[in-house]
Amino acid sequence: MKQSVTAGLIKDALDKLADPAEAPNKARFFKTGKGQYGEGDSFIGVSVPYQRKTAKQFYRQAMLQDVEELLSSPVHEHRLTGLLIFVEKYKRLKKLEEKKAYADFYLTHTQAVNNWDLVDSSAHYTLGDYLCIIGDYAVLRKLAESTDLWEQRIATLSTFAFIKVGDFQPAFDIADMLIDHPHDLIHKAVGWMIREAGNRDMAAEEEFLKTRYRTMSRTMLRYAIEKFPEQRRQMYLKGGI
Hints:
Elements: H1 5-17, H2 23-29, H3 48-58, H4 64-71, H5 76-91, H6 96-107, H7 116-120, H8 127-134, H9 138-144, H10 149-164, H11 169-178, H12 184-200, H13 202-209, H14 218-224, H15 230-237
Helix pairs in contact: 1-3, 1-4, 3-5, 4-5, 6-8, 8-10, 9-10, 10-11, 10-12, 11-12, 12-13, 12-14
């Protein structure tokens, strides 16, 4: 792939904002050690606010080719900034076919969306939004069936777009598919989406939970009921519902 001038400018801008002393802290926080979920990822030490500022600075001139180049980088901040630019550009699309092209691009680059912050900063704003518009989340079921942790989290977080418009079924369906998942990051994501549904309709959340709360992981349950009144929350935690 030919090197893009704009992508190079973005990388240069991030390099100037980098704090080498902070890079090891970020590497530890995002679990980049051997056998951890972010194994092998590389950081240069740029804070998220600075990455957002850089994305706002460059998104108008950046093209999908530039985003693709940033996503191909081994540097975490390059990929996150690329995704933030992608989101900024997606938000300004007017035509459905343009949104479809962006959703398709996202789906062909999920291997670069490979940590929880990358997923959470992009999935529901882009892929989830498009699927919500067309009213079809079959692709999320396919992602949930993947063996890739991040594709499973993309499936989960993308349902947030549906939740925001009052459609909780995709979130509940994906939750059911992943309810026995072994990884803590999926427990947290699923519990979070269940909670978001409950923030809008607690009765719908409780209807979902009543046959599941005793068997889901403790982490998933705690995330799901975090906003419940304390007495009600304790009843769930003690299995007294």
